[in-house]
Design goal:
Blueprint (H helix, E strand, L loop, with lengths): L4 E6 L8 H4 L5 E8 L3 E2 L3 H11 L2 E7 L5 H15 L6 E8 L2 H6 L4 H17 L4 E6 H7 L8 E4 L12 E8 L8 E6 L14 E5 H4 L21 E5 H15 L3 E5 L4 H6 L13 E6 L4 H10 L4 E4 L4 E4 L5 E4 L1
Length: 330
């Protein structure tokens, strides 16, 4: 695993927290906003305000209690209600948390449990939030179906994540941090989606233009913006690259980002003279223009984001999520 940053996750069970002291030991906090269809965590407001004031990076988790997909959406709507006033400071995702107690209250099959988690995540993604799934090895291997489209927050105590290569790793429930009485969950945040490893992780997701065209996959980007210009319904998008890189470019310049070319079918790529193994055909490449800013400015900032594939053209910048660095002028 690559190096990450240290953080904690907390709820009202951790009592009243001295966030100034906490900040001396960790960089981020994943805060429980609530649980079920109607319950805000008793310490949520104090925790998110305290963590923000102390200068910590912030993420959210929601403990799901739901009997079906409709109730999962009600969970997501309550979560949205709790966090909407803090949207600008939630930079480390909203995490869906389904655990043994969720099953104890609402027993599920593998298929229905997976559908519930998907319904929760997809509702919030449609509202512009970056989402993810909290899970452990038992659930990944035995109780969930395919959740590969969502970043993984893996609970695996006292041993390294190994082949699972999560987005974030909860390494122990017995951490000690000044400012918190008793034990606290400790986490390592890696902040990037691996391109290989366990099948639970995948960067590229398939969408339908007809079904998903108006769905937001980040605060400022909709599925339809990445469609192939030949009008085909299928769209492949590297969703994490959009959320972590294109959105960062949008936020940095504070200006609209036009996607001149996103996904391309093989036939359309051939028609426009694209490279035979173009990353556009796998949904991993984006030709962009930032309103009011030159390609040189955009390419320069893209380099600061450690984007591996950058080609600066006269009128636009090509960026992609290849594994080997390639920076060039077209």
């Amino acid at each position: 695993m690559t190096a990450g940053i240290r953080g904690i996750d907390v709820s009202y069970h951790n009592g009243v927290i001295d966030w100034k002291k906490v900040k001396q030991s960790v960089d981020f906090a994943i805060i429980r906003a609530g649980y079920g269809k109607s319950q805000m965590d008793k310490q949520y407001i104090n925790n998110i305000c305290g963590a923000h004031t102390a200068g910590l990076k912030i993420g959210i988790y929601w403990f799901i209690y739901a009997a079906n997909m409709d109730e999962a959406v009600l969970n997501a709507k309550m979560c949205e209600k709790c966090i909407e006033g803090y949207k600008d400071i939630i930079t480390m995702r909203v995490w869906a948390d389904w655990e043994y107690d969720s099953d104890k209250r609402n027993p599920q099959t593998k298929e229905s449990r997976t559908a519930i988690v998907k319904a929760f995540c997809d509702y919030l993604a449609g509202k512009g939030y970056e989402e993810g799934v909290y899970s452990n090895i038992d659930y990944i291997e035995n109780k969930f179906g395919d959740l590969s489209e969502y970043p993984l927050w893996l609970a695996r105590y006292y041993s390294v994540p190994g082949d699972y290569k999560p987005f974030m790793w909860q390494k122990t429930s017995e951490g000690k941090v000044p400012g918190i009485s008793g034990n606290v969950d400790m986490n390592i945040y890696y902040g990037n989606m691996p391109t290989s490893g366990n099948n639970f992780i995948s960067q590229v997701k398939e969408f339908s233009l007809k079904r998903d065209g108006n769905t937001y996959i980040s605060r400022n980007f909709k599925v339809s913006e990445f469609r192939c210009k030949d009008g085909s319904d299928k769209i492949l998008i590297d969703v994490d690259f959009v959320r972590s890189k294109l959105q960062a470019i949008r936020d940095y310049f504070g200006a609209p980002v036009a996607v001149n070319s996103g996904y391309r079918t093989e036939s359309y790529n051939k028609k426009v003279g694209g490279a035979k193994k173009s990353f556009h055909m796998t949904g991993q490449a984006f030709d962009i223009v930032v309103k009011g800013h030159t390609p040189a400015e955009v390419a320069g900032y893209a380099q600061s984001l450690d984007i591996n594939g950058i080609i600066q053209y006269n009128g636009f910048v090509h960026v992609d999520s290849r594994e080997v660095k390639y920076w060039a002028h077209g």
